[in-house]
Write a structure and sequence with these properties.
This protein is an alpha/beta fold. The chain folds into two domains: 387 residues, Alkaline Phosphatase, subunit A (3-Layer(aba) Sandwich); 83 residues, 2-Layer Sandwich (Arylsulfatase, C-terminal domain). It contains 15 helices and 15 strands. The strands form two sheets. Strands 1, 2, 3, 4, 5, 6, 7, 8, 9, 10 and 11 form an eleven-stranded mixed β-sheet that branches. The protein has a four-stranded antiparallel β-sheet with strand order 12-13-14-15, covered by helices on one side. A hairpin with a 2-residue loop joins strand 12 and strand 13. The radius of gyration is 22 Å and the shape is globular. The two termini are 41 Å apart. The structure holds calcium ion (CA).
């Protein structure tokens, strides 16, 4: 009888995370894929990722938010009913580490982007192998739209790391607008000297377009009025891409990254005050839900819905330093931390006919799992890199088998270069954290707190205590040896595969 804590994992390769192998489910998933290919002339699925920014685990109706928190999300809720809703999907604590983990299948200690590059910081994805490049090598058309934020330097830009085309901005929403808004930065807006000083800092002020191997062309400067329309323009670009691809034989990978709902939110005229909450953050959630609806409708109208795996998620937990321009999570703390509130994100997979409808699971899935899983669906698993450590696990059987179980045993939490915690089953063992004041249960923000180490560790039961307030360690010492072995085996991989540091975190 399978049990996530007592069942052993199977080794895959020296450079891969060990995983559970649910033999019957692997067989069922393989039969589905073969049947799909056989009945559709060898076709492989398209992949549509809609990655939102700073949207919380609890924001959507299907996660207990929606209308209850002043922002109904009917399209996303409907999508969840057509597919698989995960309750334990893990990002990294902030934008860039998460996005780079999704792109590379590697934890930030390996790809080296431990915090977001800001205001001209150097470094990015350069030198990594991305899922976009691997899918492209396997015959996919690769399109990136919207926020990038994995380095502005030429060799880290999307069109140099695997994408055929890019239409979006290279950095993050607040960097384009914060210093232009007199409410937040009066001392800059009303000072010509400081405005010029910021304008001369070496970061891009525009949203751009680029094609594979080329240089970026500036489309438009991202002023505040321009920013209000970005999600609409990007959605239209993706809709056009999906329409164009309907007539193309190749499968495609569309990586659509919304601007919303990262602070600060300035909804366009159509969306101002549209939510019951009337707040810009909530209005933006309505717009994002509408965009998901439009993308799905476009797939339907062009006959591609049953040939497309859709994944909707968010890149980290809510940003609480900017409350009330912030998301909702029922968990402890927020973006920037390794408490559940920082890294547990909404996650909905849909592929009608292939993923059973109305499923939900608390099985572990991490952003690193995306790369091997998508390569498996593209029947290109042999392209998973062998020259570096890949933390991701192939979760194909989890997605496709009826009542599929996760193939992942451990979730590893890192705070920069400091190992923070391990989750196995419902237990989370924490050795270090950010922001351990009692008040942080109320979510003051993960970037604000101090780092803290626990000499004996703390053990939380996430089912009994999702807010991580009571260490259960002394009552549950029976788990300790297995948990510590899990940590040791993970940390030991860095001996043969040394960590990489591009942008570090001061903890
Ligand atoms: Ca983010």
């Amino acid at each position: 009888m399978f049990d996530p804590i007592s069942s052993p994992t199977t080794a895959v390769a020296a450079n891969r995370e060990p995983q559970f192998v649910h033999g019957e489910q692997v067989g069922a998933a393989e039969r589905k894929i073969e049947e799909y290919a056989r009945t559709h002339g060898g076709r492989r699925p398209n992949i549509l990722v809609v990655l939102m920014d700073d949207v919380g685990w609890g924001d959507f109706g299907c996660y207990g938010g929606g209308i209850a928190v002043g922002a109904p999300t009917p399209n996303i809720d409907r999508l969840a009913r057509t597919g698989l809703q995960l309750t334990s999907c893990y990002s990294e604590p902030s934008c860039t580490p998460s996005r780079a983990t999704l792109m590379t299948g590697r934890v930030p200690m390996r790809h080296g982007l431990q915090r977001p590059p800001m205001y001209g910081d150097q470094g990015g994805l350069q030198g990594e192998i991305t899922v976009a490049q691997l899918l492209s090598d396997a015959g996919y058309v690769t399109q990136c739209v919207g926020k990038w934020h994995m380095g502005e330097n030429r060799d880290s830009q999307p069109q140099h790391v695997g994408f055929d085309d890019f239409y979006g901005f290279l950095s993050v929403s607040d960097m384009y607008t914060e210093w232009r808004d007199p409410y937040f930065f009066p001392e800059v807006v009303y000072s010509q000297a400081r405005t010029e000083w910021i304008q001369n800092q070496p970061f891009s002020k525009c949203f751009v377009h680029a094609t594979r191997g080329g240089d970026v062309e500036e489309v438009e400067e991202v002023t505040i009025p321009a920013l209000t329309l970005l999600d609409e323009k990007w959605a239209q670009y993706s809709v056009d891409f999906i329409r164009t691809m309907a007539a193309v034989d190749q499968p495609w990978f569309l990586y659509h990254n919304t601007r919303g709902a990262h602070f600060d939110n300035y909804p366009s005229e159509q969306w101002v005050g549209a939510s019951p909450a009337k707040h810009p953050y909530k209005d933006t959630i309505l717009e994002l839900d509408d965009i998901v609806g439009r993308l799905i409708r476009t797939l339907e109208e062009t006959g591609q819905l049953e040939h497309t795996l859709v994944w909707v998620s968010s890149d980290n937990g809510p940003e609480m330093e900017t409350w009330p321009d912030a998301a909702y999570t029922p968990f402890r703390c927020a973006k920037g931390s390794t408490w559940e509130g920082g890294v547990r994100v909404p996650s909905i997979f849909s592929w009608p006919g292939m993923i059973d409808a109305a499923r939900s699971s608390d099985g572990l899935f991490t952003f690193s799992d995306f790369l091997p899983t998508m390569l498996s669906l593209a029947r290109a698993l042999d392209r998973v890199p062998t020259d570096r450590f890949i933390d991701g696990i192939d979760q194909t059987s989890f997605l496709l088998a009826p009542d599929g179980l996760s193939n992942r045993k451990h979730q590893y939490y890192w705070l920069g270069q400091m190992f923070s915690a391990l989750r196995v089953g419902e237990y989370k063992y924490m050795l270090a954290s950010i922001s351990d004041d009692d008040t942080d249960v109320l979510n003051p923000g993960g970037f604000t707190g101090r780092s803290q180490k626990y000499p004996y560790g703390r053990l939380y039961n996430l089912y009994l205590d999702p807010k991580e307030t009571r260490s259960y360690l002394i009552r549950k010492l029976a788990y300790l040896d297995a948990i510590q072995r899990g940590i040791r085996e993970h940390v030991t991989t860095f001996r043969d595969y040394p960590p990489k540091l591009v942008i570090g975190l001061n903890v």
